[in-house]
Amino acid sequence: MSKKIAMVFPGQGSQYVGMGKTLYESDIEAQKLFAQAEEITGLPLRKLCFEGPMEELTQTVNLQPAVTMLNMALYRALKRAGVQPDFVAGHSLGEYSALYAAGVLSEADTLKAVQRRGQLMHREAEKYPGAMAAIVGLPIVQAVELLTPLTLGGRFALANYNAPEQLVVSGAKEEIAEAMAMAKKAGVRAIPLAVSGAWHSPLMEGATADFTALLTTLTFQAPSIPVLLNVTGQPVSNPAVIRDCMCRQLTSSVKWTQSIDHMRGGGVERWVEVGPKNVLKGLVRKIIPKDEPFHFHNVEDPASLATFLETLAV
Q1: Which residues form the active site (predicted)?
Q2: Which residues are designated catalytic?
């Protein structure tokens, strides 16, 4: 029996200068998609991806459509090669690539959504500067118990349930400093993250209405592949519910551990990170027990795509 496949899509933090260049040079369909993405967004995405500079590529208004464009092009290459996933999921920004892969959003609507999302997140981060940090080494239940009191002030959130012992917190800088101090006092690591805003926290609330207005203009279809949503950690099939979850995603926690556990329960043994770098590989490895069958692949360019396809042929 063939192993079930889950495709997972990365988001912010996976970018690098040069990403997508070899795919673009060798894939006519990628060239068409990149041109379409530039036309829709009005951004020089090819130049940003291939040449940088990194400072410009990393700006959230540029990064969100750039990473999504590459994720989609790689998924299309996999699909043309006959690879059919049993589940899809994306981490934060990567969730839009998963929605595209599942047939929920069209190419154009996916790009419109992530461009507006980046603009609004940047706007709110300018208004309400914040920070994020990873709390590492404390079981999630204990980390939640320790830090939940900080959420009562309305400027702090438990943002990403990334792994059984990795919780990312987000919010106002003062609350993040306090959370880091509490974690260190508890004897675990607190690592500040290099981000430009307090993503998935109440500080993004001002973006919700404008983003909801944009999403109501887009067409959401029922998924053709089970897609795990960040807000629920579960598959959702109703297009209206998916739209509502994406409206809430800006300020809601990313239930990544719960999403991976659901796919594990569905029989997934082969995991494919579709996009630049392999940030999600480390998280998935931390979630899956060591004695459980596990095969992880990264597809970010023609060479890694060929390597993955070779493993399927064995």
Answers
A1: 92, 200
A2: 92, 200
